[in-house]
Design a protein that fits this description.
It is a single chain. This protein is mainly alpha-helical. It has helices at 7-12, 50-56, 58-63, 70-82, 84-95, 107-111, 121-167, 170-245. The longest helix is centred in the last third of the chain and has 76 residues, at 170-245. The termini are far apart.
Length: 246
């Protein structure tokens, strides 16, 4: 319910803005560290919205409006003074004084992270303390996993060494090693002989192809000789026949 006052009392008092008589509110500095750790905070999380500033500055605009009566203005002033949310809002606005909406600092530059605050040392200390316990628990889990993995493997290797010392015959093992070496040597010799045989086969095949080419050339030369002989014989026969006819 808005408070009502008589008109003569209002006319006797000078017109003064409600914030001129109110003491400036200064928020107290936080002495205790924050218990919550923020890993990634948005650049707009602790900044004041332009709509909030418009909402807080509507009082001064209303006082310049001639259509607004003085009784309503005074009632709004008293309601704002009694409202704890308005006081808390002004404290929040004072705390976020770094976020200024003017020509140099715009919403775009603020969204790009030009005015980000560095976290306090207390917040970093609280964050480190909050992460200490999870890291210790994770370290214990990793140590347990390593122990569960390596201890059985080491025990199994020890058992295998005992079995090798007790059940394996050294002389028999040396004989197997020598037999393996001899087999490898025979295999290497066979591979080398096979490669030599393949090289000889390719060389002989090339030589046979060359001989066949030479034989074909000799056949062609022989055929040409027979043609030439037949031509010469025909010429001689024609000459003899012509001579005998005369």
């Amino acid at each position: 319910m808005p408070l009502t006052r008589s008109t003569p009392q209002l006319q006797s008092k000078p017109r003064v803005a409600p914030w001129s008589s109110r003491p400036a509110f200064k928020p107290e500095k936080r002495s205790t560290p924050r218990h919550s750790a923020h890993f990634a905070s948005s650049p707009l999380k602790r900044r004041r919205s332009p709509f909030g500033r418009l909402r807080s500055s509507h009082k001064s605009n209303l006082y310049d409006d001639s259509a607004r009566n003085e009784t309503t203005l005074i009632n709004e002033h008293h309601q704002d003074a009694d409202d704890p949310e308005s006081v808390e809002q002004e404290a929040f606005d004072s705390d976020d004084s770094f976020f200024i909406w003017n020509e140099e600092k715009t919403l775009f530059s603020d969204l790009m992270g030009d005015n980000e605050r560095e976290p306090d040392d207390e917040e970093l200390a609280a964050l480190a303390e909050s992460l200490q316990v999870p890291f210790q628990e994770e370290g214990k889990i990793l140590k347990k996993e390593i122990a569960d993995t390596f201890v059985p493997a080491v025990n199994h290797v020890k058992e295998l060494y005992k079995v090798l010392e007790e059940r394996v015959d050294t002389t028999f093992g040396q004989g197997i090693v020598l037999f393996n070496r001899a087999c490898k040597q025979i295999e290497d010799d066979a591979i080398r002989e096979q490669r030599q045989l393949e090289d000889a086969y390719r060389g002989n095949q090339k030589r046979v192809e060359d001989l066949f080419n030479q034989l074909e050339q000799e056949y062609a030369y022989r055929d040409q000789l027979w043609v030439n002989i037949e031509k010469v014989i025909d010429e001689i026969g024609s000459f003899v026949t012509a001579f005998l006819c005369f």
